[in-house]
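Appendix B, record 7
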Amino acid sequence: MKKKWWHTKTAYQIYPKSFYDTNGDGIGDIQGIISKLDYLQELGIEILWLSPIYLSPCADQGYDVADYCRIDPQFGTMEDMDRLLAEAKKRNIAVLMDLVVNHCSDEHIWFKKALEDPDGEYGKYFYIEEIKDGKLPCNWRSYFGGSVWEPIPGTNKAYLHLFHKKQPDLNWENPKLRQEIYTMVNWWLDKGLAGFRIDAIVNIKKPLPFTDYPADREDGLCDMGQVLAHAHGIGEFLGEMRDKTFAPHNALTIGEVFNVPDEEVCDFIGENGYFSSMFDFRETVFGHSSLGWYACRRPTPDDYKRCCFESQEKSFGVGFLSNIIENHDEPRGVSHYLPGYAQNETGKKLLAAMYFMLRGLPFIYQGQELGMENHVFSSIDEIDDISTKEEYRRYLEAGLTEDEALQAVSHYSRDNARTPFQWSDEENAGFCTKTPWLPVNKNYKSINAKEQIERKDSVFRFYQKLIALRKDSRYADTIVYGQTIPVLVEEKDVMAYLRRGKGQTLLVIGNFREDEVVLNLENILQNDQLRIKEVLLDNYPENARTAWLEKENNKDWICRLGALQGMVLALE
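Structure tokens (predicted):
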């Protein structure tokens, strides 16, 4: 594998609306991000991904772009953006933006012109079809519920939207539309952007002509996952975009890519892949159901480790995955992956070590480094997220009470990750001086950045140590490029793997159990004639570290891991 400038770095995702407010309107802004760059630098961050800050009516919180070359006034100005790029560069922080080009906003000039003349030039920038005999072109279900087709008033036509009706899908089959997108992408890269996270990109290729698929719910519609499985030829679009935009700029690109067959991973992130990397969503989508959130199954620690190991196996020798435990679309990782008894600082550090030490580019979502948790919603009125509201509406129609419906949607609501960042124990968690756009999590008094920065054994400081270890010249080559080899896979609620590089091996091991576990490491060490050299990282206090016991025959190593203990060990 050719070594790239971004391989050794750690990335951080900011949801600008909830990061830090400097002008007192209850909404985070670009100036707020600039003011916290030193905080990110102290943590060790060198790549920054911003969720959308383009001009938008915010039907889907900025993922409905009305103008790709303007900053939404709620976040600031283009001058603010230029200053952010300059200040980040001073701190050796590369900035990525969200590239949202499967769809735009219905308030984009392209769509306004398309509505004026559906059969004209701009009508071909979108998917506009006739409604024949009162029947919509196909029975696909939007990701946010209901049909993907929205009738155009005063006509017998409808337009396609895989997401919200205010997010009409762009027609990538049209080469003129594609060129418009490439011009915009190059404009941003020329401005100094380091690259993009590419949103919902697998949706740009539809199976045409439009046709019905077997319904999977009582609404007579079918899930988009079933639809996209029949779409072929996306590589033509993605390869063209790479060659005309990303490659000439040596840009870092991270694809939001779901359900790629193992044999096609190389096409996406190989040496000449469409993207530099793509997010590993195998753990994220585990247990999901097309029937809705109520039918989802939360992963156990064993489910989690199996998903991680499967992803590591499919990507090794192919390319780099980007590893996450949460983002702006998911529940908080510590609330989702950890059993109830493990949702404390020790458990949060354990989960951090287990995902962070995997091969790939680690991403931290804002607040994750503090162990921020899911919000406890008291009413649907506290929720802004459109997907949560749609699920809630469905459950009420199904006969659930309001309390039952709220409980059913609360765990998976995207607003869990969108509550304001908890900077301090001051009013509104130090995020703003006035009422924030979304309620602050009530636990901000005990979970906040100010307290954790001042405490050497905090979750923040543990993430800081993980980032520093990844850059430690003695171990960086193994941590960044070494192979991941699962061990002790049959041990229930124990996750353990080797990171093997050239002439060096590390052991990452964690106990997700509520009590101590005793493990025999004889086979792991004896097969390679290895011995334990030193503990590089431990989520227990130094005076409470595990005792390592060597048997008299000088071969068997017995390890006692305390409840929720996780360690990184150097072997020799």
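Remarks on this record: The first strand starts at residue 11 and ends at 14. The mean pLDDT is 95.
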